[in-house]
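Researcher: Hi, I'm a grad student and pretty new to this. My advisor asked me to get structures for two proteins we've been looking at. I'm not sure of the right format, so I'll just paste the first sequence and hope you can take it from there.
Model: That works fine. Here's the first sequence with its C-alpha cells right after it:
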Amino acid sequence: MSMELAGKLTNVQIELLKLFKYDLPEKQLKEVRNLLAAYFAGAAADEMDRLWDENGWDNDTMKQWADEHLRKKH
C-alpha cells in the first residue's frame, strides 16, 4: 500500500484491508457487515449510557429535547 493512500485511510480501513486481501462470498461479507454494525452500535450505546449517567439525564430530559423547536427563524 502506498504511503499516499495510507495517509488518506483511517486506521480501521487499513486494518480491514490487511485482513481481507481476498474477495469474500456475499454471505460472509454480510456477516462481516453485521459484526461491524453491531460493534459500532454497541459502542454508541455505551457512550450514550456514559453521557446519560454523567449528565444526570432522565426521561424528562428526553421529552424536553423532543419538544424543542430547533429550526432557525428567518
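Researcher: Oh nice, that was easy. Here's the second one.
Model: And its structure:
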Amino acid sequence: MSAAPARFHGVIVPLITPFKEDFSIDVDATRWLVEYLVENRVHGVFPNSTTGEFPHLSRDEAVLLTKVVLEEAGGRVWVLPGISANYTEDCVSLGRVFKDLGVHGVILTPPYFFKVSGERLRLHFSRVLEKVDLPLIAYNIPAATGINIPVDLYVELAREYSNLAGAKVTYESFTYIRQLIQRVKEVRKDFAVLTGLDDMLLPVLMMGGDGGVMALANAYPQLHRAVYDAYVSGDLGKALEAWRRLLSLVKVYDYSTSYPTAVKTLLKLLKTPVKPYVRPPLTPEKPGVEESIKRIVEELGIPPLS
C-alpha cells in the first residue's frame, strides 16, 4: 500500500454512452447513470471513452456528453474525458475545449491508425502535454491501438512533464505493470498507475498501483469500491473476498462480443434506464448471451438498480 494516494486513484468509470433506438445520445439515461455512479462513491468518470464508443461519436457529441456529465456530477467526482484521435492536433484542440468546460483532466491513447513508435509516439504525447494545460492520463491499450507504450517512454515523459498524471493500462501483463509501477514511481510518487481490467484491480493495488478505470463499474461499482476500500484500509482478507466476487462478474466479458455491449446488456438486466443500443457496426447481444449474463447476475444476487 502506498503511503499517499496518487493524484488520481481508486475506482474510475469509463462511461458507456447511452443511446436511443435512433442512435442519438440518450441524455436522460446519461444523467441517471452519472448520478447512480456518484451515489455509489466512484472517484471519477471518463466520458468519450473506449467503452463509451468514442470512435462512433462526433466531436460535437463528445463535447455535449462531457457537458452533461460535468453538469450532473456537479464537482462531486473527477471528470476525465477522452481526447484520443489519430491527428495529434485534434487531441490538442479537444483538450483545450474540455479545459474551458472545467474538466479535472483528460485521457489520451496513442493514435490508432498509423502505428507510430519511438520518437513519433513521444511526439504525440509530448505535443499534447505541452499544449493542453491539464493533468493527462496516457492510456495504453495495445489490443485496440496496435501500439504498446514502452515503460521507458512513460518514465521519460513523467520526468519531463509534471502534468502527465498517470497511466491507464489495459494490457494483461503482470511483468509490464510491475516494471511500470516500480520504475515510474521512482521518478514521480504522485504518478497514478491504473489498470483498465476489472479482474486486475486487486493485483495492481498489491503491486503498488493506485486503482483502475474499469468498464463493469458502470453497472456495479459497489464491488470495485469494496475491493479498493478493504485493501487501502489494510483488510486483505476482505479485499480478497470482494475480488473473488468481482471475478465472477467479470465472466460477463467471456460471453459478450464487446465491452460496450457487455456493459449495456448488464445495465439492461439490472433494469436501469440505459438501453442496450450500440452504434453499428456493433450490435446488441443476442438472447443467448443475455441469458448467460442473467445467470451471473442471479448467482451474485445483484438486485435491480431502479
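Researcher: Is there anything I should tell my advisor about the second?
Model: You could mention this: The CA atoms of residues 175 and 181 lie 10 Å apart.
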